[in-house]
Predict the structure.
Amino acid sequence: MRTYSGHSTARASNELYRTNLAKGQTGLSIAFDLPTQTGYDPDHIMARGEVGKVGVPVTHLGDMRTLLDGIPQGSMNTSMTINAPAAWMLALYVANATAHGVDSRELRGTTQNDIVKEYLSRGTYIFPPVPSRRLIVDMFAYCNSNVPLWNPMNVCSYHLQEAGATPTQELAFSLATAIGVLDAVRQSGQVPADRMPEIVASVSFFVNAGIRFVEETAKMRAFTQMWDRITLERYGVTDPKARRFRYGVQVNSLGLTEAQPENNVQRIVLEMLGVSISKSARARSIQLPAWNEALGLPRPWDQQWSLRIQQVLALESDLLEYDDIFDGSHVMEGLTADLVESAQSELDEILALGGAFEAIDEMKGRLVQSHATRMRRIESGEQTVIGVNAFTETAESPLSGDDSILRVDPAVQAHAVEALADWRAQRDNAAVQRAVEELRRVARTDENIMPATIALAEAGGTTGEWSQTLRDEFGEFRAPTGVAAAAGVGGGSAALRHLSEYVRTLPEGPPRLLVAKPGLDGHSNGAEQIAVAARDAGLEVIYQGIRLTPEQIAAAARDEDVDIIAVSILSGSHMELIPEVIRLIRANGVDAPIVAGGIIPTEDQAALIAAGAERIYTPKDYDLTAIMADMIAIATGREVPGAEVRPRDREVEAVKT
């Protein structure tokens, strides 16, 4: 039983972990902040406003030592949600254990290390696919010999569902990723053939579970069947235990709503059933989101609530006392068989394109299409979401208010930068430079990257120094947006087509919309859907993808001669980055109106309006047609015929007043 947590500083996160362990949590699940996940030190320009926001900053061995202070590494099972810099974070973990007299062979845990889903959905990639795969392969080979109880990769379908994947796509894309890595390990020559079953057995999965928990249960049974067949037929694993589909889960966050967020509690409970009710396909570990994640960062009390939900199910109910209650069910067996058939067909298509690492563009386009279809169903009312498009009347919630989420002190970044400067001043910089040069040399060869990475960690190197060295050697990657593939999916909606017809009558031509994502926030689903809907509504759309500086956005606004700018942030850095984006755009002489969207608490909206934002859109604003009509009216300065006045308009005017 875990809660995914970490925030502010290594010291604050350590206190949180020790508190959660005392409350009955049985393992660690470490959330890293975005600069750490994308390989930047706190003093890098890209880290502005992001330090400590969605996780803990871990920059060097001193931070890892503080993070794990008083926590026995030798007996702890630790999950680290880290991908592009997974080799570096494992190196810090191993180096810290060694410094405390713990043999690396005793270490248990998992690094997520699924870079394909970062390209497709989460956005914390650094390097191109081929060198990224090399880093994963090196970790498998190193762990097999030196950290044998560690799972080097946790194939993660969770974020695929968050990006709109259907159950069929979630099955096919994640299994294609596992095959792409295992084939590469086998071909690398680093692992003897007789040890490949150990490599296969070390692969674990991290899945999602949505609100349709009967279908989700069938999906997990399909995963179990397909993985058993793949490991037997493709990799020759004969031991049934080594073929077991081992997975952990966090239930769905995509379906958590800002409107009536108390409904998220029952959603979380139902979703947990999908990965626990069928014994033959039950999760090995479960972590639950907090009820208020659609509002902002959860507090420790919110995380405790999620932990207690698990404890009640495991220790008070009788769910775990029986054999699989679905065995012999014609409905479940039929649904599972259908999913296996459709997923195998999709998997075969991906493998025919060369595999997951070679088919990034195609898979991304399919995901954005699926998400667009989902959004159209919600918008039309075909898919009901309680409190959003049905039963929207509500009494005032006692859970709301400014103290209903965790707020990270803005001074955290300044303190982190100061602490980093102290670390650099006290270390042996000559030793660090030698370790950097050795890492650079190894990167240019086919040698395993892990020994040089661990040496740099022990010398006192930083996250930014490790990643910049490999950026210099491997290059950086810009992932596809998938927007072009999804525009007009299913013919678009009738309402968006109506808007498109109106836009064609505008004498000045269609408005030009710049969709911008500043900072390190890689959750691009919302921005992608705005871009898709805008194209379907007839606007000209400029969307350059994620991870842009405010300066780059301001330059694009100037050079592209845009009529309206939409800025999207979901990482909690909106108060730092949006005003800076607005300031720089205006300094460039661009007077186009600016709107903002994302997980932006009501309490922050007045300040953003005062800074120059014309509108604030949040997850409550699910109606993409209404948003498009609003943006067209803002861009052109005149009402769109037939468009309803949105309640948000009045809220914004009230905030301005």
In short: The radius of gyration is 24 Å. The CA atoms of residues 115 and 132 lie 7 Å apart. Confidence is low (pLDDT under 50) at residues 647-651. The longest strand covers residues 564-569.
